[in-house]
Amino acid sequence: MTPPELMLASLGSCAAFYAVQYLKTRHLAESGVEVRVTAEKLKQPARLGKFNIHVTCPVALSQEQTEGLMRSVHACLIHNTLMSPPEVHIELHMSEPVSV
């Protein structure tokens, strides 16, 4: 997988985890949640943007349950990280020079 694909997979698996936890704790479903994540490649600078998370729930939900499931997916750690970009520091370390 490419790094951008891994990022989408991370967001999708996080959303799925929170959705499944919501359904399990309320005894609504044990499995069957499907999540698909898409994003557009943007330029200047090159990056992913306009993420779309598509969640398919295996059971019918009431309006209250639907809202609860949406709150759960929005609580995903990866989602929250993307919504409040972290500081990123890059350090470069050199290997010892090779003797000739």
Summary tags:
single chain, 100 residues, alpha+beta, GMP Synthetase, Chain A, domain 3, two-stranded antiparallel ribbon, 2 strands
Characterise the protein shown here.
With 100 residues, the chain is of the alpha+beta class. Helix 1 (3-25) packs across helix 2. A hairpin with a 4-residue loop joins strand 1 (34-42) and strand 2. The chain is built from three helices and two strands; from the N terminus they run H-E-E-H-H. The chain is elongated and about 70 Å long. The model has no long low-confidence stretch (mean pLDDT 95). It has a two-stranded antiparallel ribbon. 42% of the residues lie in helices and 19% in strands.
The share of residues in helices is: 40-55%
Number of helices: 3
CATH class: Alpha Beta
Strand order across the biggest sheet?
A: 1-2
Give the name of the CATH architecture: 2-Layer Sandwich
List segments where confidence is low: pLDDT < 50 over at least 5 consecutive residues.
Answer: none
Architecture blueprint of SSEs:
Layout: H1 3-25, E1 34-42, E2 47-56, H2 63-74, H3 77-83
Antiparallel strand pairs: 1-2
Summarize the structure.
The protein is α+β, with helices and mostly antiparallel strands and 100 residues long. The protein has helices at 3-25, 63-74, 77-83; strands spanning 34-42, 47-56.
